[in-house]
Structure formats: C-alpha cells, structure tokens
Amino acid sequence: MQMPSGRLSQPPAVTVDAPARLHLGFIDPNASLGRGFGSVGLTIDGLGTRITARVADETRVEGAASDAQRARIERYLEQLRAAYGGPPVAVEVNATPRAHAGLGSGTQLALALGTAYVRLAGRTATTAQVARLLGRGSRSGIGIHGFDHGGLMVDGGHGSNAAVGIARLPPLLFRQPFPDGWRVLLVDDTSREGLHGDEERRSLAALAPFPRSLAAHLSHLVLMRVLPGVAESDFDSFTKGIGEVQQTIGEYFAPAQGGVFSSTAVARALAAVASQEMAGIGQTSWGPTGFAFLRSPAAAERALAAAREASRANPSITCMIATGRNRGATWHAAEVQKCGIDAA
C-alpha cells in the first residue's frame, strides 16, 4: 500500500483491513542461479486481519488473541514510534487468522499496524519500508506484495546481496487477477501449528541442498502451466501445475514437517476431495492449513462436503470455502467512538 506523498492530515483513528494469503510454493530454495526462494502466492477473502488504531494518552492493546500477539504488537509500536515519532497509540485487534497456520498472519498484522501508525503520525512510508522496519519479508515477498496488490503473484526471491545482510523486498514479477468463478477450499488442523521462529530456521538449515534440476522443473511448471492457466482462466492447466509444484516442494520439505503435508488429517481430507473432484491440492507455507482449488461454487460445495465427511471423527479439523481477493489492503479514517476503546 503506497502512502500518499506530502504532509498528511492526521485522523484521530484508522481502521486497516488486510487480506490473508496462501503461500503456494517456493521455486528455488537453494538459490542455484543466485536468487533464493522465489514464491507463488494468492490473497484470499475471509480470514483477514482488521485492526483499529487511534491516538491515545498511553499505548494500549485491546482484543489480542494471545499474550504473544499482544507482546508482538507492543514491540511493533515501539519500533514504529522510534522511527516515525508521533503520539502514543491505542490498538484494538478486531480480527486475525489463527497464528502459525500458513495464512501469513504475522506479516499482515505488522503491515496493518504500520499503515495505521504512519497515518496517525501524519507521516509517509511505503509498505516495503514498513516491512523492512518490522523485520518482515526475510524469505518470501508474497505477503507484502499481497498487502499492496492482491491477486495471484510470483516474486523473484532474494539476490546474492541478501547473503551479506542487505534486506530488500523480493521483486514482484507477475500479478494477475484470480478468476472470479474459481473457489478455494481451506482445511485446517487446529490441533497443530506450522513451523515458525527458531524451529523453522533450524529445520531449513538441516535440509539437503535443493537440486538445481528440481528448481528448473518448478520454474517450468510456474511459467508454462500455473501462470498461463490463471491468465487464460484455464482451470485444468492451473490446477495440474499447482498440484505438481506442491508435490515437488512438499517432498523436499517432508523431513522437516513429517510428510508432504504437516497434518495427516488435512492430507486425508484433501485426498477425499481429489478422489471426487478435479482439484489442485496442497499446503500453504508450513501448514497445517491445506487447500484445494475448485472450478466453480458448486464443485466447492461438493468438495466441502467430502472434506467434512472424511474428517467427521476429528473435531480439530475445520473447513471453509474462500474466494480469491484481487485487491490489497484497505484503510479508512474511523470515528473514535467506533473503535471499541474508550476515548482518552
């Protein structure tokens, strides 16, 4: 989200809505041609992040989903105030996805807070500047580009300068609107969390080098199946490409996460879907949330029923249908009395 230039008016309160994102796979985790990772991703409606921030007499956080989320918000606010000045800010968390489920909740929360704070302080900053300040985008740029643009995206990963500590946002190589008629079935295992933090870093470091031949294969799939498929609304090409990308990258990460899917219950539900419908199935990021792309609302409803039937004995499994989101985050000035936080 590009902030307007020049001196800005300072609203008393700002509400930001940021979309959840699906990370559909890395292209070259080993930087075989000098660029590490590279990502394919999609923003979706539903399961987004909404926060309201307002000028206050002291820093406060209301509605945080956990103590860890509250501490993260407080840390972000300290960093933002040190960088941009401004008065204390009270934050109300209106909605966030479940943390560490593969939906990009940490990045969207950081960018939403940064967007609101900069507006309240009457300052200007790009999304990339906020992300760099708050330490987001160290591997994938999909969450940051999704915040700005929405849709289906491919980023170019980090160049060799990343190895010497120069953090730059991976360039956006491709952005295409996601077809309106397609649907995404999401299957989450609420008893599990995806790898994150130090555990994620240790797991990545322990993996074998990613073969250059597989990076070439993934590049070919993305360039000649996934991208033409979404550009031409060719569902079969898109889903076959995504499915093969997911199988290839899932097998590589299997030693770190216990299999192609991190949750066997999610894998079982998606297998039931794939047995009945043409669907591109996979796992977003480290999971445990899995996905299935469906060609129509009717196909999505049938897939939802199949996933629920396959998961009937497991109460930790939740399923829902989402649509692609072809716009980025939005913000608006909010009335103080509507923020849910008492005026100072």
From TrEMBL:
Q: Which UniProt keywords apply?
A: Kinase, Transferase
Give the source's domain of life in one word. Answer: Bacteria
A Pfam family that the UniProt record links to this protein? GHMP_kinases_N
Give start and end of each GHMP kinase N-terminal domain: 74-140
Q: Does the keyword Transferase apply?
A: yes
Looking at the keywords, is Kinase present? Answer: yes
Query: GO molecular function of the protein, one example?
Result: ATP binding
* Residue ranges of every copy of the GHMP kinase C-terminal domain listed in the record: 229-310
Q: Which NCBIfam families match?
A: beta_RFAP_syn
Protein name in the entry: GHMP kinase C-terminal domain-containing protein
Q: Which organism is it from?
A: Caballeronia humi
